[in-house]
Amino acid sequence: xxxxxxxxxxxxxxxxxxxxxxxxxxxxxxxxxxxxxxxxxxxxxxxxxxxxxxxxxxxxxxxxxxxxxxxxxxxxxxxxxxxxxxxxxxxxxxxxxxxxxxxxxxxxxxxxxxxxxxxxxxxxxxxxxxxxxxxxxxxxxxxxxxxxxxxxxxxxxxxxxxxxxxxxxxxxxxxxxxxxxxxxxxxxxxxxxxxxxxxxxxxxxxxxxxxxxxxxxxxxxxxxxxxxxxxxxxxxxxxxxxxxxxxxxxxxxxxxxxxxxxxxxxxxxxxxxxxxxxxxxxxxxxxxxxxxxxxxxxxxxxxxxxxxxxxxxxxxxxxxxxxxxxxxxxxxxxxxxxxxxxxxxxxxxxxxxxxxxxxxxxxxxxxxxxxxxxxxxxxxxxxxxxxxxxxxxxxxxxxxxxxxxxxxxxxxxxxxxxxxxxxxxxxxxxxxxxxxxxxxxxxxxxxxxxxxxxxxxxxxxxxxxxxxxxxxxxxxxxxxxxxxxxxxxxxxxxxxxxxxxxxxxxxxxxxxxxxxxxxxxxxxxxxxxxxxxxxxxxxxxxxxxxxxxxxxxxxxxxxxxxxxxxxxxxxxxxxxxxxxxxxxxxxxxxxxxxxxxxxxxxxxxxxxxxxxxxxxxxxxxxxxxxxxxxxxxxxxxxxxxxxxxxxxxxxxxxxxxxxxxxxxxxxxxxxxxxxxxxxxxxxxxxxxxxxxxxxxxxxxxxxxxxxxxxxxxxxxxxxxxxxxxxxxxxxxxxx
Length: 735
Hints:
mainly beta; 4% helix; 14-stranded mixed β-sheet; 4 helices; 735 residues
């Protein structure tokens, strides 16, 4: 009767035989008509009817009986249910003019049951509208042609197969399928088809209070319904957007967002949507001021599979398959916790073309020294794996890194003082440091590429902490085929001239580049220079020569720091290495040649046997007395020690008791056949520059600079010499 709401639930029509329903009027004859929610029509034999089985809803007028006039409107006239959904038609034998028909087409959709109340609904939105906070809504399989406002704390569970959310109407509100505006929502097991000609996202979660959002086991697909251009601003095209401030500001959560859980989801796109257009999301997950877990997902997007900015709380990105633009962590807040990026697989095949010139893992601007662990990941098929930009407090450990096959231009890890962003020249610069251990760096199969590089591309206020590259028991393995194992970058001038990375030259991009001057110790790493992985300490001199050729540092450009790949003091005769000059001399035999790598050595040295002590360069090897207790000599040659050669180094700032008792270089006496060549002796206050006590014979002083020895001291003294075979090569001497 008029006014009744007639929405039957759960009827079963099965195993019936129906035939011959034909109307002579303009109306049609129906075998079975189903209206309402959650019915089953199965195992029936329907034949000879104009319409065998019809699902229908919404026959006007309503409420009340449907219009039973003799109308050609495809409805069964007595129908009066406003909704029909979840009607399963299966296993029937049909032979009719029209076997099955849905009027309208939307009745083919699934049904939604409120688990708490038992009530059924034909749309997700109607179920949410009727729900109470905390209710669980079970969404059955089917197609749901709707935008959904999730404005109550509910759990939305999709059935199996996953319900399909595919909106075909005119968009209202935010350009998304699900608009989440409350905390505590769970969205599980849906298939979101995002029509990129009208929408940006599957889920946009934005509210002043938004904690405890859970998004699990969903499939999100970028599609197109026409050849129209992709809708909206590129920065908004994120499959899952949680408190993200793109070109449209959705970042409004006060105090940030805690306990985000995004697990087991897939996000994908297509190279051709059927209309000749590629459709992909900019990001799979884009979130600001949030902390949470992103685990077990498979993502393929253009720029960011996951981007977390201004983090809040711990961020755990673990055990994902990243097949797109990878991960970006940037500008962590003081309220951020530990950032863990672990157990993920980064396959850069797609990213090489979708986002060329960028790394698949980007760590940017660690203003608040948040602890970051990049551990146990696999990187493959990349041109650039990891970019560390204005970053610190990071450990990169136990990762496997294999570049694009055949590439000669790849970079595994690049450390940079410059933030690679459009506001580079206004970024607050922080200390740069890192621990890089236990990683396996592979070649591409074609010689070339760079494993580790260090760039000072924003020198205005660059600061540096400690860099640990390998360690005893924690060695990195640098395998064969890598063109440059480690490179200290020597580009200078404006960043617009950089060949790697390449930066735009407009807006806030340009900064000033300078040489990387910080020394790095890499002796606790293994390198394959043709004979398998070896520590430098186990290499022969020819192998060390090959290793040197695969490094780029001070020997290549004097403005650079030094890569120390063994203990810095090398006994060339015995091929042994020592941390200090004194320990090398103590272990030497008479006649040995000791070579000192570039660096500053804060020690007093005593030569007690015939040998050669030589630096790699006069300006690069510095024996420095600054801070040593008391007065004394820089290099002392014991009495009667002959045949000593000292060359290519600087001796400076050793305080002496007097010009006769102390000097930068001091021969106690009888030091015949003494050669001092290409040496600078500087600022040894209270002592002489060079002093050789006699009797002494055959002294060669060649290309020596001696200056700055004040307080009664002298430059060069050969005292009580025999006046035979003493050569000063134009320098003033006092006899």
